[in-house]
Each structure stands twice: as C-alpha cells, then as structure tokens.
Amino acid sequence: MFSVFQPVFSVSHRRAIGYHASLRARDDTGRQVPSHEVFTQAARRGDLLELGRLAESLHLGNFFSFDSNDEWLFLSLHPAALMDTSYGDALLASLKNVGLPPQRVVLEVPEQAGGETTRFAEIIDSLRKSGFLIALDGFGVKHSNIDRVWHLRPDIVTLDRCILQQASEHSHIERVLPGLVSLLHESGQLVLMGGLSTERDALIALECGVDFVQGAFFAGPSAEAVQPQAAQGVVDALSAASRERVAARERAQSARLAPYVSALESAAARLIEGAGLADATRGLLQLHETARCFLLDASGRQIGDNILPAARASQRAKRFRPLLHSEGASWERRPYFIEALRTPDRVHLTSPYLSINEAHLCVTASIAALTRRGTEVLCVDINWDVTAQRR
C-alpha cells in the first residue's frame, strides 16, 4: 500500500494550500487498486478501523516528508472511525510521533455521517478543540441541508460533485450556485469544490466564488508535492476566460434589453407630460417579453394596479392569482426602487430574480421621474424565463 496526494488550490492565492491523501494498493498482478475497493474489502473482513489507522499513519509519514511547513493535510474519515471514542487520541498520538501539529490536518467528515445525534456533534467539537480543522464533505447530496452546517460549524464545506454536474447541465442551477456559496460564507465556512475535470467545471467553480478547487483539471493524485507555481498559469488563464464570459453575457444582455430601456425612457417622458400610466406604457406593453408595468410613489408604495399586456395571461398567472393584484403594495426595499431614486432620470436594471407577482424569473427596469404629482418610479418587469431560453 502507498499514499497519493492530490493538491487543493486556493483560487485567490493561485497555489496549493493543502493535499488530499488517498490510499492505493496493488493486487497480485500489479494492478493498482483504488482506495474504495481496499476499504470495501476491509469492511467485509471487519478490519475497517485497523486499515483506517494504518492508512493515516502512512499518509502522515509521507506527508511529513514534503518540503513544506504550511500546507494542510486533508484526511477522509470513515463514519465508524469518527464514532470510535479513542479515535481522536490515537490520531493525536500519531501526529506527535511525526512532529505534525493538529492545526495542519483537515478532517473530512462525510455530510451524512452520524445522523442527527448529539454524540456526533460532541465528537466533532472535541476534535476541533484539539486543534484539527473540520471539513464537511459532500454537501448537497441526498438530504443535505444548511441546518447541518449550522449545527456542526465546520471550517470548510466541500460541495458534492452532483451540484457541479447539475450546474453544468442546467443554467438556472448554475445561476443560483453563487448564492449557495455566499450563504455558506455568511455562515462562516470556506468552500471547496472538487472533482473538476474540465475547463467548464473550473469556470463554474471560479464564477460561483468558491475558495478552494481540486480536480484533474488542475492536478491529479501523485506521490510528490506540486511546485508552488504549478497552478498560477491555469488560474490566470481561467480568470481571463471568466472575464470574457462575463463580458460576453453583459453584451448579450445589454443588446437584449436595449428595446426595453428605450421604451421605458419614452414612457417616463410621457408620464412627465401628463399621460396616464396605461397610455404612457403602451409601447412597453407591445414588447414580447414584457410581463407588467407598474408605478411607485416616492415612498415605494404602488400607485394603482399592474398594467398587463392584452390577452397574454399565462398559466402561471392563473396559479398565482392571489399575488397578481398589487395596488398599495410596498416595494421600498427592492433594488429597482432604491437605485432608481439614487440616480433619477436614468434606467436601472436588476439582476434576474424571482418576482412575487407570478413567482417567475424576471428582470426589472426602473426609472425615477419628476411628474406633476412629484417623484415617481416607473417600472417594467421583463420575463427572464423566456429570455434565458434564447441564450
């Protein structure tokens, strides 16, 4: 049996900040046997804990031979090992033997391990107090939930590869992934995304704001440490590709929304001249992706009801009928109201978001204008579900 180490890179630092240790073995024919097969065979024989401790000792000795004093060692823990009351003490003793402080070891805890037991949380807390860093591995698989993160308070959360796969296949999942990463950041966790094998995978990771990346695209498992500058060129090239992707999306969005910006400016001019809302927004309502127009007063309160395109009621509108009528609704906390007041006479465009009116994805364009009644904010919701299908 022997150890291999796959580097974990920091996107910001552009270098390896740790290594994930894995066990390898060879059978009688010399074929390399993956670690999961080795552990499966050990589980059948009832030798799982013994093999786990042997593997950890092997990893610790090999990792200590690396010419470095900073990188973390990531160790995957089997749930059975975690529930063993002597595990932490045994691991600390092994670390002492090789002269490695526990602060340089990240213990990867399977997200589904331990269930909801208080005992499991106590074990994790004890390991943390001993100096180990805790990584919750596989977040996003099966019945994962953010409550698990809040309860265990890991230092790092590793997103399950199924999230990456879903984001690669569905644009709406890719679009919300930065929000998930942001939620984990606000909860106090650094975020790692592994299993990155293509440039597309790596770009998704980069653009959703994860802290750490790992995968064959950057470097595969090896018995040797990588050079400090190994990932710099790759990360720089990815950053350049990401900037171009973002710029291309912005150009496409700007071109797509240009007719709405122009029509909204014209509608605002008509309002200033004294036209009613329905008359002023006639041109806007003729644009194919207009969902509704509405008017707000200076406090963010809606004046009158929504003005809808003629004969274009959607099935969604019928299902969300209790939300359709918005006269008197307060939108004072919405970005389209706040930004419009901040820069009057200029059109503001939101990012795509879920509209409460019909629970659909939309972009809102807004403009603040001084009418005969005082400052008012004219808004148009643009159906982004339709727009997104044309990407």
Structure, described:
It is a single chain. The chain has 391 residues and is an alpha/beta fold. It folds into 2 domains: 2-230, Alpha-Beta Barrel (TIM Barrel); 257-388, 2-Layer Sandwich (Beta-Lactamase). Helices cover 43% and strands 23% of the residues. The protein has 15 helices and 15 strands. The strands form 2 sheets. Strands 1-2-4-5-6-7-8-9 form an 8-stranded mixed β-barrel, surrounded by 5 helices. Mean pLDDT is 88; it is low at 387-391.
CATH architecture of the largest domain: Alpha-Beta Barrel
Number of strands: 15
Largest sheet: 8 strands, mixed, barrel
Question: What number is the mean pLDDT?
Answer: 88
Cα radius of gyration in angstroms: 27 Å
Label the structural class. alpha/beta
Can you list the strand order of the major beta sheet? 1-2-4-5-6-7-8-9
CATH superfamily of the largest domain: EAL domain
Shape: elongated
GO molecular function, one term: cyclic-guanylate-specific phosphodiesterase activity
Organism: Caballeronia sordidicola (Burkholderia sordidicola)
Domain EAL: 1-235
Protein name: EAL protein
